[in-house]
Amino acid sequence: xTDYVDVAAANEVPNGxxxxxxxxxxxxxxxxxxxxxxxxxxxxxxxxxxxxxxFVEPDGSIECPLHQGRFDIRSGRALCAxxxxxxxxxxxxxxxxxxxxxxxx
Length: 105
Known about the structure:
Elements: E1 5-9, E2 18-23, E3 26-33, E4 36-41, E5 55-56, E6 61-63, E7 70-72, E8 89-95, E9 98-102
Antiparallel strand pairs: 1-9, 2-3, 3-4, 4-8, 5-6, 6-7, 8-9
């Protein structure tokens, strides 16, 4: 089981937006929705585009900038065509103003 790894200051993750980080050779996306910070893999499962260039929607989804497919960032679920595979979601904790992520397999 992977431990939590410090990846960012909490104030680096803007509300309603996404930033990218590399963690153990894996690209992840960090999102903030109000007080909640979330993490997923950063690459779209459809077209290999970086979701860090995508658009975070108020409903908690991320729209891929390449083909406009949307994922639920809380569950990773693919919400519409052309997406057919879900995103991997990672566990996040915020303590002392720092964001730590535990990678999922």
